[in-house]
Amino acid sequence: MQSRESRGLVLYNQNYREDDKLVKIFTEISGKRMFFVKHISRSKLFSVIQPLTVADFLLKINDNGLSYIDDYKEVMVFKHINEDIFALSYATYVASLADAAIADGVYDSQLFAFLIKTLELMEQGLDYEILTNIFELQILERFGVNLNFHECVFCHRTGQAFDFSYKYSGVLCSEHYLKDLKRSHLDPNVLYLLDCFQTISFKDLQTISVKPEMKQKLRFFLDDIYDTYVGIHLKSKKFIDDLSQWGDIMK
Ligand SMILES: [Zn+2]
């Protein structure tokens, strides 16, 4: 077992026996790990093990079993996200996507930074639906899915009114629509936006604005992409879907 200091994001905690907890933390230096906390009701760790809390942790990391939290400092909580059930449900979903995308114990500081940055932008009040789309899109390669929305599969032209083809797992320009008789008949703007989202910088995000109708089209298409290529069903995603139905009823 080795002592290490690392920034970490709490993904979730769960009860373990009467007064103990298991806490899943995505650490910057050592990937996702499960930590054991004894006597949580009397523990100074009580507040720091809440989901989506970020802190600098002093950890005892065990490669063959449970790890332990010795101490922590520099705690940061996402106050605005926690106050808004919609933002919170999207933030929870992106965190659980990161959890699903890589195995435990695998070092991935790039994904760690991307997740933290996404949450920080949600906290700042940027559009959480669009941030979630960008996260879903950019994390696809962690699931082994590489999709090119930038150029036609056949002629490699760019900047066209593309349609998506599941048969070729890529986009077709209008000259090559006929290559796939079951092409998706998508609004080309959906693919244009996804192409932007694959390479968008966080700076450009400050100015992005997408209409509700287009957001819904993005949502439907990304759901299809995840159903077809990834095939995971996260509880946190189901919650978002249910929440949006509630939203519709209230309107
Ligand atoms: Zn083409």
Characterise this structure:
It comes from Streptococcus dentapri. Residues 1-73 form the DNA replication/recombination mediator RecO N-terminal domain. InterPro entries: ARFGAP/RecO, DNA_rep/recomb_RecO_N, NA-bd_OB-fold, RecO, RecO_C. Helices cover 39% and strands 24% of the residues. β4 (54-61) and β5 form a beta hairpin. The protein is built from eight helices and eight strands. The model has no long low-confidence stretch (mean pLDDT 94). The strands form two sheets. The protein has a five-stranded mixed barrel. The chain has a three-stranded mixed beta sheet with strand order 6-8-7, with helices on one face. It binds zinc ion. Residues 152, 154-155, 157, 173, 175-176 line the site of zinc ion. The site of zinc ion (ZN) has 7 residues, from loops.
Furnish the topology, listing elements before pairings:
Layout: E1 2-16, E2 20-27, E3 31-37, E4 54-61, E5 67-76, H1 79-83, H2 85-101, H3 109-123, H4 128-138, E6 148-152, E7 163-165, E8 170-172, H5 188-199, H6 202-205, H7 212-230, H8 235-250
Parallel strand pairs: 3-5, 6-8
Antiparallel strand pairs: 1-2, 1-4, 2-3, 4-5, 7-8
Helix pairs in contact: 2-3, 2-4, 2-8, 3-4, 4-5, 4-7
Function: Involved in DNA repair and RecF pathway recombination.
Pfam family, one: RecO_C
Domain DNA replication/recombination mediator RecO N-terminal: 1-73
